[in-house]
Specification:
Elements lengths: L8 E7 L2 H18 L2 E6 L1 H11 L6 E5 H4 L3 H17 L4 E5 L8 H17 L6 E7 L5 H10 L2 E4 L2 E4 L6 H8 L12 E5 L4 H14 L4 H21 L4 E8 L2 E8 L31 H9 L2 E7 L2 E9 L2 E3 L2 E3 L4
Helix pairs in contact: 1-2, 4-5, 5-6, 5-7, 8-9, 9-10
Keywords: Kinase, Serine/threonine-protein kinase, Transferase
InterPro entries: Anti-sigma-factor_SerPK, HATPase_C_sf, HATPase_dom, MEDS_domain, RsbA-like_anti_sig
Protein name: Sensor histidine kinase
Length: 334
């Protein structure tokens, strides 16, 4: 990898209005254009219009991308952005990204998953030399989301000044705390199968039939089958029986849970960042966690929740179900 001119940075830009936004964002973007960086601005349309006007001729050196399409899925977005950063660094350039996360209409589980992605960005991108700046509109967002940004970004930007965030948490510590939050119990009407001897063929048949009955789109059924096969295989190899498979639907989601009596190493991130080719499988975190399988599972599902402890390990997979609009189905990929 060719060295870039500066080290990695990941900063939050809290702003209360257009003046504060432009005071931090415009110098950041202009510097990237002047330095020959690959400069990207991922924003809503309104912010794009403001930035183009303020940048003038420098706007030609910025790639503008809509936030609602960019921020579609935490793991997929991280993988794509990390690829861009590594490609830029490999060519002796720097990725300079202004990324305004899309928080609107996300439920609490989605919000937490994106916050975890923000935290793990500090690990995944550390060797790329990328410069990432994340605007947060403080008047439009819940206070908890703004407070969370100070835990996941090492620095805060005010104008052209960057200051250390006193509330910043080590990414592994942040995610370990998330992984200790208790999961709600499965509903009483959840389908449950206790398994002593696993037959993956019939298991996939059972999960596939349930998913199709729940009206999960065919593409997502296939994603679920691959994900549950990986999780079940992991339970067979590393867990302790019996293994419990549970299926149910929540509002807007199909949930598939695999539980066993084995215990995983905590504090690893459980596949939250992509493993690197050529690295040992346990190189991603302080206690391991660089598993290709778990990263793939996160790429396939809308949300993956993992809890491990004295009672065993639970892996809960969620995929979005089609939205119902005026009695009709509107497909909504998970």
């Amino acid at each position: 990898m060719v060295a870039v001119s500066e080290g990695f940075s990941h900063r939050v830009l809290p702003y209360a209005g257009a003046e504060e936004l432009l005071a931090g964002a415009v110098p950041f973007l202009r510097r990237g254009v002047a330095d020959g960086d690959r400069v990207m601005a991922v924003t809503c349309l309104g912010t794009e219009v403001l930035l183009r006007d303020a940048l003038g001729g420098d706007a030609a050196g910025v790639e503008f991308v809509r936030a609602d399409s960019w921020y579609a899925h935490p793991s997929r977005t991280m993988a794509d952005c990390l690829g861009d950063a590594e490609d830029a660094a490999g060519g002796g350039r720097r990725l300079r990204l202004l990324g305004e996360p899309a928080w609107t209409h996300r439920d609490p589980l989605e919000v937490r998953e994106w916050q975890r992605a923000e935290a793990m960005t500090n690990v995944a991108f550390a060797r790329t030399g990328a410069a990432l700046l994340c605007p947060y509109p403080v008047r439009a967002l819940p206070a908890a989301i703004v407070a969370g940004a100070r835990k996941t970004h090492p620095e805060t930007v005010r104008g052209e000044t960057a200051l250390p965030n006193p509330g910043y948490l080590d990414p592994w510590t942040y995610n370990a705390a998330c992984d200790t939050e208790p999961l709600p119990p499965p509903p009483p009407d959840a389908e449950e199968l206790l398994i002593d001897v696993v037959d993956l063929y019939w298991l996939r048949m059972l999960v596939g039939d349930y998913a199709r009955t729940a009206l999960l789109p065919d593409d997502d059924v296939q994603r679920l089958l691959v994900a549950v096969t990986e999780v079940m295989t992991n339970a067979i190899r590393h867990g302790e029986g019996p293994i419990a498979l549970r299926l149910w639907t929540d509002p807007g989601a199909l949930v598939c849970e695999v539980a066993d009596r084995g215990r995983w190493r905590a504090g690893t991130g459980f596949g939250l960042i992509p493993p690197r080719i050529g690295e040992p499988d346990d190189a991603a975190g302080p206690d391991g966690g660089g598993r290709f399988g778990l990263w793939a599972v996160r790429m396939l599902c809308a949300l993956v929740q993992i809890r491990t402890g004295e009672a065993g390990t639970v892996v809960r997979l969620r995929l979005k179900l089609p939205l119902r609009v005026d009695g009709r189905l509107s497909t909504h990929s998970g």
